[in-house]
Design brief:
By secondary structure, the protein is mainly alpha-helical. 78% of the residues lie in helices and 0% in strands. The chain is built from 14 helices and no strands. This is Tetratricopeptide repeat protein.
């Protein structure tokens, strides 16, 4: 009898322990699934903000912020997506909302300044950048500071900011190209040419820098193509740019020859160069 009572007590204890283990296991599973959902959502948000179709990302983050309006990560995703979708006016509003959030960080102000520059609000962008703590030293912050200095024609500040930005990136081609354009806008074509060459050396596919290089050389009346890597189509396009630069400076015969060379070089029909040459020939004949 005593053994039966003892057996019953043990059985009850085992069943109770099993129930506790089962209950604890379910709780662990729920916690794991919750963590997994957070990770999955975070990954999805990152994909939508950086890799998805920009307008689809805007729609996604608009819905998400409507359902959860206080989450700053969703607000950032919406603002980033609006910039990617080339909707800067809306992006300004979105980034301003992020900046006003209690969890905002200095980089949010930098992004707001970027959106303001995209809409041509240079004074407001400068004000926002002035509010960024000096300890927040990032490539984008100094690149934007340089662009604002350019807009104010504060060339010494501009050069200093560009130089600082260069030291904070492993991909300098874009900032070198911007700096070169800054030099060209102030008449320093020789200095601009040097910076454009550096930009192309860093990124041989950066056609904007190639075209700017031709403009800088053309402004010095150097009407030959530099020794840089280019496709046949790029060569034709650069000859066209060089031709127009020559014509603008009054070197019409040089321009005509370059236009004809551009037409002959292009592997397909080069409509823009043909139209330019016809207009020039008609103008001369008339």
């Amino acid at each position: 009898m005593r053994q039966q009572v003892l057996f019953s007590i043990c059985l009850t204890a085992v069943i109770g322990l099993a129930a506790c283990e089962k209950k604890g296991g379910e709780a662990e599973v729920e916690r794991a699934l919750k963590d997994l959902n957070v990770i999955d959502e975070s990954n999805l948000n990152n994909v939508m903000a950086t890799a998805a179709d920009p307008n689809e990302a805007v729609s996604y983050f608009r819905r998400a912020t409507t359902n959860d309006p206080d989450r700053i990560d969703l607000q950032r995703g919406l603002a980033q997506s609006l910039v990617r979708a080339k909707r800067p006016t809306e992006a300004v509003t979105a980034w301003a909302k992020v900046v006003d959030h209690k969890e905002s960080v200095p980089n949010d102000r930098v992004e707001l300044a970027d959106a303001l520059i995209r809409t041509g609000q240079w004074d407001r962008a400068e004000s926002v950048l002035d509010s960024v703590p000096p300890t927040h030293e990032t490539f984008k912050r100094y690149r934007l500071e340089a662009m604002v200095a350019d807009s104010n024609q504060e060339w010494d500040k501009s050069d200093s900011f560009y130089e600082t930005a260069l030291g904070l990136t492993t991909r300098p081609s874009g900032v070198l190209n911007n700096w070169g354009y800054s030099k060209m806008s102030r008449g320093d074509h020789k200095g601009a040419e040097s910076l454009f060459i550096q930009a192309i050396q860093d990124n041989p596919k950066l056609f904007t820098a190639k075209n700017n290089l031709i403009l800088a050389r053309g402004a010095q009346r150097r009407y030959d193509l530099p020794l840089i890597k280019m496709t046949q189509i790029e060569r034709a396009q650069l000859l066209h740019t060089l031709a127009l630069t020559a014509i603008k400076q009054g070197d019409v015969n040089v321009g005509k020859g370059l236009l004809q060379e551009a037409i002959d070089t292009h592997p397909q029909h080069f409509e823009a160069a043909v139209i330019s040459l016809r207009a020039l020939q008609n103008g001369v004949s008339n």
